[in-house]
Amino acid sequence: MKRIAFVMVAVVALGGAIASMTPASGQANGEDAGPIFVKVIPPGYRDWKVVSVAHEAGDLNDIRAVLGNDIAIKAYREGKLPFPEGAIVGRIAWSYVASEENNKIFGREQSFVAGSPTDTYLQFMVKDSKKYAATGGWGYSSFDKDGKPSDEAAMTSCFPCHQAIKGRDFVFSRYTR
Amino acid sequence: MKRIAFVMVAVVALGGAIASMTPASGQANGEDAGPIFVKVIPPGYRDWKVVSVAHEAGDLNDIRAVLGNDIAIKAYREGKLPFPEGAIVGRIAWSYVASEENNKIFGREQSFVAGSPTDTYLQFMVKDSKKYAATGGWGYSSFDKDGKPSDEAAMTSCFPCHQAIKGRDFVFSRYTR
Question: How far apart are CA B64 and CA A65, in angstroms?
């Protein structure tokens, strides 16, 4: 799920089903309208349990919490693959910023914290084997801080990278205990 | 709460009440026995909601999830200070490791993920204004991956740093939306 925004080259082999989609906007409460696009932010995601945390340096330059809904967390903890229907793995990405406050208090330049939401603030992958059969059974989504979904071209770049980890049901993040 | 292990110089002004403590060990199910020491890992902490995430570079070299129990999260979200009695803010710290897997897939050296538990894997600060009056109303705790609490000298180093952020009720981490 990481790098959806980063891999901008759309290496797509999904057929033409996405051609006629109209991106949702605003609160992202639109209905899902295609085989790989999820246009609704899963309600309550900010209350979900932690899968792990990560830092993406380089152009992304974010720090992120990877979360899962109850179905996903249960599967993670039990080591069950593939993930069951209804599992959702999400991540929140904030800008990666040095904490001047912390560094001053501790007398060292070493504390990095979460700043403002990034351009691809929220990303989710939703398991629905039938609906998203063309992309490994997962639908992908990405939203900015205002809830606006990323455009179609960006979203078609998800699966080509996730394909590389088919052995873990296409999910990058491992659950860390 | 960050840096409890790092600031090893015990700048203590807590009186002699901690002198006779015996560190607990093993599963850390011992009773709390002093004014600044919490020796029981709060049950269910791994299910708590996310306050924020951070990376401590340098000697700590960790990546961490800061979590809160329901009382703490409610206060954070409502912007209420001081935190109410019973609030617990915790953090899980994993070693900060480059993800060769991710980097290979994405063709760039920029992905850092959570590895194994650090020496101060779990840390919590527990709000009890009476019990922990000498340390700003918070009791501090730190545990390794086996649930063994950090030793007394290390724990006395918590409050001197937390004192610097009295204006936010001694809690370093801000809630990130």
Answer: 9
Instruction: Give the DSSP H/E element, type plus range, for residue B112.
Output: strand B111-127
Contact (CB, 8 A) for A83 and A127:
yes
C-alpha distances in Å from residue B39, one per residue of A45, B57, B131: 32, 27, 14
Q: How far apart are CA B21 and CA B39, in angstroms?
A: 11
Q: Can you tell me the distance from the alpha carbon of B52 to that of B173, in angstroms, rounded to the nearest whole number?
A: 7
Tell me the pLDDT tens digit for each residue of B71-86: 999 999 999 999 999 9
- Ranges assigned E (strand) in A37-79: 49-56, 62-68
- Whether chain B has a CB inside 8 Å of the CB on A101: the answer is yes
Q: Where are the domains of chain A?
A: 45-168
Quickly count: other Cβ atoms within 10 Å of residue A115's Cβ. 16
pTM of the predicted protein model: 0.81
Nearest one of A151, A109, A169 to A21, comparing CA atoms: A151
Which residues of A30-164 form beta strands (DSSP E)? Answer: 49-56, 62-68, 88-98, 111-127, 138-143
Residues of A in contact with B94 (CB under 8 A): 52-53, 176
- Kindly report the number of other CB atoms within 10 A of residue A101's CB atom: 15
Indicate yes or no: CB of A165 within 8 angstroms of CB of B105.
Answer: yes
pLDDT at B121: 98
Structure tokens at A154: 């960006």
Question: Exposed, middle or buried: residue B116 (CB in 10 Å: 0-12, 13-18, 19+)?
Answer: exposed
Q: Give this complex's ipTM.
A: 0.81
